[in-house]
Amino acid sequence: MSERFDAVVIGAGQAGPALCARLDREGLKTALIERRRLGGTCVNDGCIPTKTLVGSARAIHMARRGAEYGFAAGEIRVDMAAVKQRKDGVVRQSQEGLAAWIGGLGLSPLGFLIAVNLLFLALGCFIDATTMLLVLVPVLLPSVAALGIDPVYFGVLIVFNITIGLVTPPYGLLLFVLAALTKIPLGEIIRECWGLIASMIAALALLVAFPGLVLWLPRVLGYLK
Ligand SMILES: Cc1cc2nc3c(=O)[nH]c(=O)nc-3n(C[C@H](O)[C@H](O)[C@H](O)COP(=O)(O)OP(=O)(O)OC[C@H]3O[C@@H](n4cnc5c(N)ncnc54)[C@H](O)[C@@H]3O)c2cc1C
Fold first, then answer.
1. Rounded CA separation 200/157 (Å)
2. Which class in CATH covers the domain with range 41-95?
3. Could you identify the atom of ligand 1 that is nearest to the CA of residue 16?
4. pTM value?
């Protein structure tokens, strides 16, 4: 059985899916061909795995400097198998997120924003803020433009998501800082945080549903049309 397409994009790396989103928006039936793995170099071998390993190295480095920051973390031993397992998990999540995104091409701007928020909320539990900003945002920006979403609005949503990621277990950076500063066990802090996390997610849902909450002030001040 043969199928006709208006356009064929070769390679599902950084460039391919974003181009597909643009072509889809133009109403062109597009085929995406990938010979290896979804995500290309960035997701599978480049940006994501390397920055995840750097994230582990940074956490270990900071823990070893605990005395300088006023806490004792005990003897720090590196479990390379666990470091690699974490890296593989993050790569897998990124591939799944990308697969879900490609599968949902043709989404409305609201559907796209909901998908992006779910991806960031899930990754925020495992990846640090800098990695998400440097790696994921450039991948998503072409689709943001193609869907006609205001980049200022998108930026605010991303910052909000990253803020939630800082307090979501198991790797929320602020949870560790709080535990070190207050000497309260991590588990106790996490138990107390759920209410805060739920209210932040509710606020995020309001921002997604009502973009005017974000864009009203920049518009009034003349920064946006
Ligand atoms: C170690 C490392 C770290 C990096 N860190 C960063 C970083 O932190 N931030 C950043 O912005 N960039 C980083 N980069 C660069 C980034 O990975 C690349 O710029 C980006 O992946 C390029 O995207 P692309 O879509 O052009 O190509 P690719 O991601 O390479 O995708 C091309 C895809 O096309 C497929 N393909 C090729 N030929 C065919 C064919 N004939 N048929 C079917 N499929 C085909 C390939 O399998 C591949 O999946 C890093 C790169 C490396 C190597």
1. 12
2. mainly alpha
3. 25
4. 0.64
